[in-house]
Amino acid sequence: MGLSLQILLPFFGGLAVLFAPRFGRDMERWGTVAVMALTLVVLLYSVVNGDSGRWLAFTRIDWAPSFGIQVLLAMDGLSAAMLAISAGLGIVCVFVSWHVTHRSAMYHAVICWTIATANGVFLSFDLLVFAFFWELMIVPAFLLIGLWGHGQRESAAMKFLVFNAVAGLGLLAAVFWMGATAPEITFDAFVLAESDYATWVQVLLLLGFALAFMVKLPVPPFHAWLPDAHTQAPTAGSILLAGLLLKTGAYGLFRFPPLLFPDGLMALAPYGMALGAFGVLYGAILACGQFDAKRLIAYTSISHMSIVLMGVCGGVHFALAGAGVEMVAHAFSSSALFLLIGALQQRTGTRDLRDLGGLQKTAPAFATSFAVFFAAALAMPGTANFLGEALVITGMFQVNWAFAAIALLSLIVSVLYATRLIGAIVFGKPKAATATFEDLKPHELWPIIALGAGTLFFGLFPQTLVGWLRPAVDAALLPLGVGAP
Amino acid sequence: MLAYFLLLVPLPPLGGFLLLALDPYRLERRAVMAVALAAGIAPLVLFLPVALGYFAGSIGDTIAPAFTLNFGQFEVALAMQLDALSAIAALTVTVVASCVMIYAADYMASARVADLRRFFALMNLFLAGMLSVVMAADSIVFFLGWELMGLCSFFLISYNMNSPRAFAAGRKAFVMTRIADAALLAGLLLLFLEATSVRIADLIPAGLAAPEQRAVVIAVLLLVGALGKSAQLPFQTWLPTAMAGPTPVSALLHSATMVAAGAILLIRFAPLIEAHPGVAAATAIAGVATAVFGALCAVAQTDIKRLLAYSSISQIGFMLLAVGMGAPGVAMAHFVVHALFKSLLFMSAGVLSHASGGTTEIRRLRGSAYAAPISFATYVVGAAALAGFPILSAGWWSKEAVLGAAVMAGPFGQFLWLVALGSAALTGVYAYRPVWSALRSPVEPLPAIKENWLAVGPLIFLATASVLGSFLVGPIVRTMGGTVPHAGLGVEVMGALAAIAGLIGSVVVSFSPVWSARIKRARRLRAGMQMDAIYYAFLVRPYRRVVHKLSGRNARKDTSHEAETDRTDGGMGDPVGTATVNLGLWLARVVTAPFVPDRFDLVTMRSTREVRRAGVWARRLQTGRLRTYVMAIAFGLGVLVILGWGMTWG
Amino acid sequence: MTPLNILLVLSAGLFFAGLFGVAARRTILMQLISLEIMLSGPALGFVAVGAYHGSVEGTGMFLMVLGLAAAEVALGLAIYLHMRRATGGDSDLAHRLRG
Predict the structure, then answer these.
(1) For burial by CB atoms within 10 Å, which of A12, A264, B49, B626 has the most?
(2) Which residue intervals define the domain NADH:quinone oxidoreductase/Mrp antiporter transmembrane in the entry (chain B) (predicted)?
(3) Which residue positions in chain A have pLDDT lower than 50?
(4) What is the ipTM of this complex?
């Protein structure tokens, strides 16, 4: 019950929020916060009362038995972390969007629905239902970008839609094929995991799945939708996009290939790692050349998520643990950065690095917050981001030193783009746009503090997070590296 | 019990950092100073009894575990330790840091409260990082502190927010040290994989037991990490430009502690270096080469801070030489002595420059000796220590130990000894130059400045230590488990002669017009043999070109304002991404192109035309005239009749 | 050729003459007159066949036709008067039902 509530609560909550303005001013905002808080409470309850063993919670409801479709929801540490992040980011989004008044009820409803569909992705283990939620996820995000975004929002939203919808076709095709050709038609992932496909079949199916996940991650060359989507999306849209939607791609890669296509994954793993390595460098190099702050952070997201790809394809314990930690860490740090840049744009009207500067003087709280997440973007030890990257690098050393070397390069290049960002925003003399800059207000500061505390906590006391992710990691191991535990 | 006390030592600066950075209580100027000084001096207060107890032998080697993680067979056990290295180094660091903090309280007194808070927060965080590095018992805490120092260094060098030059200097320092940090991380991770543990006590045997090739790679990676952090060749270009930061920053970070952290790294992992003669030789060569290079460049400098920066590079080269020659204890001794006199030199130079009206040019320091006599006196003591004034200064004793270690290490060592001797002589040449300059009478007499006790107290203390430290060198080496190398009287006399030669050389260089002109012309040397420019041309500019090429020439156009046109072709850069988009668009075009003139629709429309024409033709029957209709009826009747008649046939 | 045949031919000829007249004449009045001639054709035919068979129904039909013709003429002339106002007597001008 608790698991289906994770999906149903935000969905119906979103519907309820549509009617909330009748009850008072700002009621749709508080309503959304309440819905998200309630979801979080239900999640905590499920976690605390969870079973020990592979799954913390497991739900199975038959839906269309003759077609082998059921609502099969399962949660372990990884999904629980992702669900917590989704609800938490939902609350952050509300506080960040306090200034949005145009069709505000619909806006908050769309936020709720984004979270509901993402939760569906994180929980489903019936492949058809998973694909359903996967495709459905695109719709609220499309609305968010296209209706409440900035100047070029329609084209950015269309680009997002086309990329992700086309990529989802691969997933759908693979899912349908698998379900239909099973001895007894079923879409239950665990049952399908037992079926013994030939390796080349596994490779093909994996490519179908992987196409959808890699476009969502995003990994070059499929990343072109992300910079535009981020720059044109409203702040809450960017936060949900970076903190949540990208993680669904990572989550999909983490879960399904090792479960369904282990041989195929073994065959394709080196290419996956190579693609990830390319993505790490490409995203970082491009980030160094951007003048638009949000675009810069978008490219850094591409770089960081490519590290996750490397980790997942690495198959050894360290790499997978690092990928999981990086997923959580990046959700925190990129959400915080987008929050700050969003506040910046809202106050100054620009994201162009050449027009900004000197915020250390005019807005010290902003500057300090920025410095914290600057350190996180750099993967400074003490932040969860470093933990994730270091674990992935360790795993790469067990698999292939060349990939490890490239991942280490990312440490160096990250300094370049991070200093570019902070140098243009915090350092220097205040310019025309930033001369009068209202410092962060409490409703913006609290999310920052929470996110920063999370980043530092998981960076300094990693045993909580790593232990939490352990069952998921163990399920995804591949015999790839030397000396794997 | 003591173990947990160890864990407490880095906590006061950390707490100070949090208090000053987050500033929940909106502290006033005096409160800021108080918090900063308390946090900065507390580690000394906490650690002193521990260190003294250790040296007295009543406390043995201790490990203070923090917490433990498990990754299957891999165990990650974080801890701090108390052993010879950590005791000596931590004591040195806390002493020097306390002196610098007190000095900074006076030096930075004129800054805005917000900037003051920022400065002291960063200094305290740095101190916490450095203490983590020297007291770490495992590689994770070590690396944590290491990187933390790099971060604080960036922010402290670029402390002056209004100066793009300072920001660029900080950025350069950060990038270069990050390159070295990446190498260090690689080495530490490889060791971790070999040892399945992060404790340094486990890493070293595992590194020794590793297969030959791998062990060499690890040792080289660690060496590169040390070279970068300590600004040795080829990473040395960041330190001179880092002098753009305020004087206390230079005194603490870039002379005594952070740059020496590379030496600490090598001393800590010395067994791994010594196990491979090639790597040890490389270490020694790098050290000696840097020593000579730094000394030569220092001779040609006109700015006192840059002179001292090159001097730091040079002196750390000596430490690396000692490690390469298999005498880490000697390197440790030199580290301690260098920390004492170098921070002293920077701080007193700061006072002298303040007395000369804020300039750091050596030429313009004339007369400052009379304006700030106490600081000048301490500067002279520091310079003597740096130059290795025979017998009277601690610098001589530690340098002699280094030279002795080199001599005793075989023919190769003796060759290096000769080179190092030359560098020691050069050290004398440059060390006294500011002294002679300050002694000259100024163009206009300088007003005597008030030498605040806050500033001068630490100076006097450090000056005394630079002299009395002579007695510490032997004990330090012995505590580190080594023996003080006695290479024979001849070698020691050569060392003394080199120091005196340096003194004479400095007089010559400062007062002889020929030599002064030569130095003025040595632009190349002054610019550090323009390695900066070489790096820029071969590394930075090509990288920037790649970045611009990939980001698109039109990335320079305003993309955040709403005037942008969203083209999917080039101009927006990102060749890989736009390639995908263009591929998609091309595919869409190619697939839909045959269907664009809708043939079915054309057929339908054409057929309607025919139908219309038929209709037009059929309308001709509808004349509306009675007569036509009558004829039609008649015609039809006729047809029927004939039909009927025809049917009767059958 | 029996007398009946001759009479039937004559009646057919009258009918077609009248038909020709309706088709060929443009004036409405002349069309009406032709219509009368058309009527007289079958009327003659009825009489001839009645005489041939010696029954009285033929003559009865002839009387009905006569009455019919009279009624039709009455209405026809009334309509003709209206049409004359609209078209001036030219039947080709009454083409409002033209398609």
Answers:
(1) A264
(2) 136-419
(3) 481-485
(4) 0.91
